[in-house]
Design a protein that fits this description.
By secondary structure, the chain is an all-alpha fold. The protein has one domain: MetI-like fold. The protein contains eleven helices and no strands. The radius of gyration is 24 Å and the shape is globular. The N and C termini lie far apart (about 65 Å). The mean pLDDT is about 80.
């Protein structure tokens, strides 16, 4: 009797968990789905029911110079942020995992700290600092801010991968007379490629999709894609805003997915080449 009752209680608990999980996912993704669907609405009033299918709002985006300028700004800032944070992240992770030095724990905490502080507080704090030293807001300050926000995530990803790489391979290369830089380039770095690619894609996404910090750090007259959407929302909620939001979703979600698929395909190809070499 008690066993059957426990089984029934377990099934009800599992069903309740599934219902709550489904409600959470619907709450999270329903607005995104509605934005994508309404971006194809033929009516200029963004709402249901749809009056027809149309791509006119995407055509308007392509002819909107402000939107194109914001897209170019966000794109090159995100690419530069991904490149710099990847280089710095690999160097910092290597120092934290492979070397011992004074203040190592404090340095690690300092690197990870921007990921623990809310972006709004960090943005306001840096804004107050640059005002105190009479430093004007520039585009390069915005880039440095994005690097500051994305660097901790790259360090954590690469560091987690590097911890799992045995020192034996590097020590064997060093014992055979290979320079430390060569052993890192030929042995450690190829093993770090999945983490490096994942960190770069995450840094790109964080920078391209950043809103709160960019509002505080961007110079006057410069708009990124998120801030451009906010400025358009101040006027009205039109299907053009929905179309721009859909583009943002495609970029921030599509690029990491495509990068992950390419990385998986490359890994499978590399394994197949190794297996062919062993059989031959």
């Amino acid at each position: 009797m008690s066993g059957g009752r426990n089984d029934r209680d377990g099934r009800w608990a599992w069903r309740l968990t599934m219902v709550v999980t489904a409600c959470v996912y619907i709450f999270m993704f329903a607005p995104i789905a509605a934005t994508v669907v309404l971006s194809f609405n033929a009516s200029m009033f963004g709402g249901f029911p749809l009056t027809g299918f149309s791509l006119q709002w995407y055509e308007r985006l392509l002819s909107n110079e402000q939107v194109l300028a914001a897209f170019r700004t966000s794109l090159w800032i995100a690419l530069l942020t991904a490149a710099v944070t990847t280089l710095l992240g690999v160097a910092v992770a290597l120092a934290l995992v492979r070397f011992r030095f004074r203040g190592k724990q404090a340095f690690s905490t300092l690197v990870i700290l921007p990921a623990l502080v809310p972006e709004t507080i960090l943005g306001v704090g840096l804004l107050v600092l640059i005002k105190a030293v009479n430093q004007p807001r520039t585009i390069w300050l915005l880039v440095l801010g994005h690097i500051l926000l994305a660097l901790p995530y790259v360090v954590l990803i690469v560091q987690a991968r590097m911890v799992g790489i045995s020192r034996t391979f590097e020590e064997a290369a060093l014992s055979l007379g290979a320079p430390r830089l060569s052993s890192f380039r030929e042995i450690t770095l190829p093993l770090l490629v999945p983490a490096v690619v994942a960190g770069a894609l995450l840094a790109f996404t964080i920078s391209f999709d950043n809103t709160s910090a960019s509002l505080f750090w961007r110079p006057a007259g410069v708009e990124t894609m998120p801030t451009q959407i906010l400025s358009m929302l101040k006027i009205s909620i039109s299907p053009e805003v929905n179309a721009l939001g859909t583009v943002m979703i495609l970029v921030t979600v599509g690029i990491p997915l495509v990068g992950g698929l390419i990385l998986q395909a490359f890994t499978r190809f590399k394994k197949s080449v190794v297996q062919q070499g062993r059989t031959s």
